[in-house]
Amino acid sequence: MLLQAYLFLSCVSLVWNARASAMVVITAEGYVRPVEVGVYYESLCPCCQSFITGQLASAYTEAPELINLTLVPYGNAQTTKTSRGYEFVCQHGPTECQGNKIHSCAIKYVQNKMQLLNYVACMMSDESDPEAIGEECAQLTGIPWKPILRCSRGREGTELLKSNGDLTEALGPEMEGVPAITFDGKLGDQLAAINNFWGELCKHFPEPKPAKCLTPSYKTFSLHERLQGGTDGKEHSSEKLWKKRSPFEWNTKYTNCTK
Ligand SMILES: *[C@@H]1O[C@H](CO)[C@@H](O)[C@H](O)[C@H]1NC(C)=O
Fold this sequence. Notes:
With 259 residues, this protein is an alpha+beta fold. The protein is built from twelve helices and six strands. The chain has two domains: 33 residues; 219 residues, Glutaredoxin (3-Layer(aba) Sandwich), CATH 3.40.30. Helix 3 packs across helix 6. It is globular, with a radius of gyration of 18 Å. The site of 2-acetamido-2-deoxy-beta-D-glucopyranose has 5 residues, from strand 2. This is GILT-like protein.
């Protein structure tokens, strides 16, 4: 079944690539191309934490085929070029810059987007030492930590964060706050996107909507539940720890993402 779906999707994307990129492809089977979703955020902003661990992670878990996700960690940081290379000032201080670099490196090194999003959401549930939580979440989500650590401590992490800054500054109109969410490259109603991500996402599909969009909301999965199927099928020792900081807590803690 999965293999069939995969072959089917590859066929569609071949057709898709051959045509004008602004075209929406709807096949007889009702396959619709995914909406391009950009999430511009920074690692320590409370609303970014609640959005990513809650609305975004749950929607993606429910319908990864409807979302082509691009994460851009940088947010309200500033970059300066010095004789020593690029330096950053982050809204929530150096810890945030360090976290943003780890996220940037994970984005480069983790190819599976579900695994990547689980990793980022896991990291965002803890504000303490980014390297400690980065390692713990790598174990929990089954991804190799060493390449990410090496990248984040070195020039590679610096370059990746710099280019995330360039992407953030290239947003037009300029974002008003973080997280900033784009659908098909455009910044729309940010409050709606943050507080009703699923509803806004579904607006971007033409009729007939994907069947999943006929459901006005969806189940909220905790990371724990998302990992139950398991990235490697094993029970993880850190799960107890994770339960203490489930996305539900974040959701209740930061329900007010107002600008
Ligand atoms: C998702 O976006 C990337 C570029 O960001 C593109 O290369 C890829 O083809 C897109 N995938 C689909 C299924 O549209």
